[in-house]
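Hi Y.,

Following your request, here is the sequence exactly as I used it, all 367 residues.
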Amino acid sequence: MTVIDRRLLLAMSLVALIPARALAETQYFMDGQPVTREVGEAVKILNDSVVLLQQNRNQEAVDALLQAEQMAPNVANIHSNLGLGLAKLGRNQEAIKELEIARSINPDNTSTLLTLGGIYQSQGQINQAIDTYNEFLKRAPQHKDAPKVASLVTGLKNELASGMISSAPPANASADNYLGELGSRLNRWPASKMPIRVYIQPGDGVPNYTPTYMTILRAAFSAWQEASQGAVSFTFVPDAGQADLVCSFISEPSSLTNGAEAGETNLFVNKEGLVKGTIKLLTVPLVAELPLTDNRKRWLCLHEVGHALGFGGHTNNPQDIMFFSTLVSDNFPHLSARDASSLRGLYAGGDTQTARQANSGTPDVRP
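Below is the corresponding structure, written out as tokens. Let me know if you'd prefer a different format.
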């Protein structure tokens, strides 16, 4: 039995927004110390930014924090929250600059370290991410999130060692497909299984489920089908007993193989290739600071359907849907040219190595 990619490493899963305290009277205090009126007003803006970031009103938060930064350039938490807001807008280099400023002002700020490590991870800068997470563990070994961070570091190191991900800069992943990157971690549905029969269990009664999630998942199947240019097709069936692939919505992270994941795909293969599978999708955010928006649902659905089609590993290019980590930014996700080319190459003909070696009923877990 071969088990592949049990963890989808979630960047920013440990981020914490940083409020501060100030009194809106004639005298202002921060951390129990008196400060100037200008600094006090800046801290009020900082506190307001926490709500904006939690509501995903990221541009508003960034605009406000830029003003606060001018008023109080030596308050580390302003730079830290500004870095998070910029990252959520996809402005990663600016975000890293702000977070490094925050770290220089207060090297012990654990939230800054977690956010910075998450951004490095989401950009595929694995060594920088590991170094930053290790610094967090060194400075805060008793932190409530320390076990989670330690597990994350172990997972990153294991995937590096196994070759599942690369420490090379993402810019080097420039081939027009990633079949070579995934190597033997490939499989596919045989032509006799087309169209693949899909059943999506309604999420009625599952906390935080909305019918929009069903629509987004259906669209993900359509996107991959269109990208295949006729090589792959799906049909939706009304009963799980008729299906090759069963999808469900869940609200308990603990029901997944790894509770730090937002989705999981389980597949079974025989000598001909893939024969059946399941997809589980989380309906709740793993952290409040990164709400499960429609864009993040789209990314998750596209990613898990990609695994269901036979991509057993992850890529090192953040532009790919099959990238090994979620992104911090909240933009509408699309299949990359490499995603589409890889799918067409996978289904172009000839048995994959994995399919030839598979035993009947072998499970293959892909988060």
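The longest helix spans residues 37-54.

Thanks again,
Q.
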